[in-house]
Amino acid sequence: MGTLSQIRSLARSARHRYIETRRRRHTERVIEALDLHILKDIGWVRSEYDHLPAHRRMR
Asked: In sequence order, which residues have a C-beta less than 8 Å from that of residue 22 and are 6 or more positions away?
């Protein structure tokens, strides 16, 4: 069993890593949605996306 400070720093780094991963994933999803939106506006998007539910497409 490690000391309390060791446990604290471990938990902090783990939490930080988790938050970073979530933020990165969210950013990727937003960028994907934006790309899809722009391509749709230009009319480049093929209908392979149209079978997806609307909330998947918009997000």
From this structure: none
Rounded Cα distance, 33 and 41, in Å:
12
Q: Where are the domains of the chain?
A: 4-58
Termini Cα distance of the chain: 44
Q: Report pTM.
A: 0.44
Task: Copy the structure tokens of residue 8.
Answer: 């604290």
| pLDDT of the residue at 12 | 92
Q: How far apart are CA 48 and CA 59, in angstroms?
A: 16
Contact criterion met (CB below 8 Å) for 45 and 36:
yes
Residue 45 burial (CB count, 10 A): 16
Of 38 and 52, the one with more pLDDT: 38
